[in-house]
Amino acid sequence: MKKPIKYLWLVLAGRALVAAGIVVFALTFDPNRYKGEIERMAMERTGRTLRLQGELKLVFFPSLGAGVAG
Predict the structure, then answer these.
(1) Which of 3, 23, 25, 43 reaches 20 to 30 Å from 64, CA-CA?
(2) pLDDT tens profile 25-49
(3) Which helix (H) or strand (E) holds 24?
């Protein structure tokens, strides 16, 4: 009976560590550092001009990505 409880605590601790890692990443990552590189890559791959106006933000819902204000 004690073994399943031990594994339950290990699973919960693992999930807590993953959640903490996601929070730290979200608080320290600045997507605006890559704005110029994104614009340059869009020009190289499509031949079209991309201008990201406004601030880039991390978006977690409904899917993981970046949101652009303008």
Answers:
(1) 43
(2) 989 999 999 999 999 999 999 999 9
(3) helix 2-28
